[in-house]
């Protein structure tokens, strides 16, 4: 009997992530059902999930249930499936490695754009500010001559460091799980968080949200940032005291580029939308047409490996689950 694969994605996300050819590849190897019905999830051997998939019902991973693999087309899985499911033998795979490439590119773009104040110049030009006044604005700074602090040597943090190397900037990294040899291989100097905040011209956040990292950039840490520092957050808003960071941006002490917020969608009257010193984007750091299709293709590749009894390439092990995003 063929394995039963339930594609638990809404119509819109499924259309963006899974190409017809990828669905055909699945259908050639398994009995494929497209459904968000909890009853269907409970009867699945494999679930393909996404950002719009609700948490899996406990019946799907209870003792005696059929579920053997959750193949997630996104990155974060903790909201979707609990550690107890992995303890009962359910395997989990995701595409954080795919998303990391897109987010790292966006982070480097944000760093360069922030250092050069390209959004500020473009906004002033659109508002008809006189050309001479624009020329008299404070000039931007070269990335080459800056110190960039990376908070979190996650996949995205590492991919960002890789992309920064050709620019010749000095890189610091804070991650309690990273040793000196690994940091050196990434072209970065390992430091504690306080020194990173104090010495960096740019601070880019790439840590997962865990009990130990939630609020790790609090009011005291915001105050420790050097005047004029640029803070880039493409990770999660829960890492930062948003009130303190926003106040520092409004006071002109720091500048901020952020793609993540405590409330999403961001309310129309939220001060993050229009605060001076802030460039805000609507959680799109990982969102490219190329990335979406790659998410689907890599997920299907993983399901086919699993069905063929081959090793998975993007599995979240039980040990890794506790520190995963």
UniProtKB/TrEMBL annotation:
Residue ranges annotated for the D-isomer specific 2-hydroxyacid dehydrogenase NAD-binding domain, each copy included: 109-285
InterPro entries: D-2-hydroxyacid_DH, D-isomer_2_OHA_DH_cat_dom, D-isomer_DH_CS, D-isomer_DH_NAD-bd, NAD(P)-bd_dom_sf
UniProt xrefs under Gene3D superfamilies: NAD(P)-binding Rossmann-like Domain
Pfam families in UniProt: 2-Hacid_dh, 2-Hacid_dh_C
PROSITE patterns from the UniProt entry: D_2_HYDROXYACID_DH_2 (PS00670)
Positions of the D-isomer specific 2-hydroxyacid dehydrogenase catalytic domain: 83-316
Protein keywords: NAD, Oxidoreductase
Cited CDD domains: 2-Hacid_dh_8
One MF annotation (Gene Ontology) recorded for this entry: oxidoreductase activity, acting on the CH-OH group of donors, NAD or NADP as acceptor
Membership in a protein family: Belongs to the D-isomer specific 2-hydroxyacid dehydrogenase family.
Name of the protein in its database record: Hydroxyacid dehydrogenase
Species the sequence originates in: Jiangella anatolica
């Amino acid at each position: 009997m063929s394995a039963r694969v339930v594609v638990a994605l809404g119509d819109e996300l499924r259309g963006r992530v899974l190409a017809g050819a990828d669905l055909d590849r699945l259908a050639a190897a398994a009995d494929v059902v497209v459904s968000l019905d909890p009853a269907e999830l409970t009867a699945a051997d494999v679930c393909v999930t996404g950002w719009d998939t609700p948490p899996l019902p406990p019946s799907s991973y209870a003792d005696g249930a059929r579920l053997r693999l959750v193949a997630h087309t996104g990155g974060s899985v903790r909201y979707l499936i609990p550690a107890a499911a992995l303890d009962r033998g359910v395997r989990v795979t995701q595409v954080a490695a795919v998303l990391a490439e897109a987010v790292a590119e966006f982070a480097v773009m944000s760093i360069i754009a922030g250092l050069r104040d390209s959004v500020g110049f473009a906004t002033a030009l659109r508002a008809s500010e006189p050309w001479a006044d624009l020329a008299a604005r404070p000039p931007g700074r070269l990335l080459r001559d800056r110190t960039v602090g990376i908070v979190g040597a996650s996949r995205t943090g590492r991919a960002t460091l890789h992309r920064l190397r050709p620019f010749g900037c000095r890189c610091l990294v804070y991650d309690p799980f990273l040793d000196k040899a690994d940091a050196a291989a990434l072209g970065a100097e390992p430091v504690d968080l306080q020194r990173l905040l104090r010495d960096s011209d740019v601070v880019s956040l790439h840590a997962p949200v865990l009990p130990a990292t939630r609020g790790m950039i609090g009011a005291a840490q915001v105050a420790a940032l050097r005047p004029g520092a640029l803070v880039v957050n493409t990770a999660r808003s829960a890492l930062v005291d948003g009130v303190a960071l926003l106040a520092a941006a409004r006071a002109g002490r720091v500048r901020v580029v952020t793609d993540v917020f405590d409330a999403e969608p961001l309310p129309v009257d939220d001060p993050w939308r229009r605060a001076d010193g802030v460039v805000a984007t609507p959680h799109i750091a990982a969102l490219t047409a190329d990335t979406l299709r790659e998410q689907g293709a890599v997920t299907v590749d993983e399901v086919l490996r699993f069905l063929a009894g081959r090793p998975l390439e993007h599995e979240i092990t039980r040990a890794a689950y506790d520190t995963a995003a």
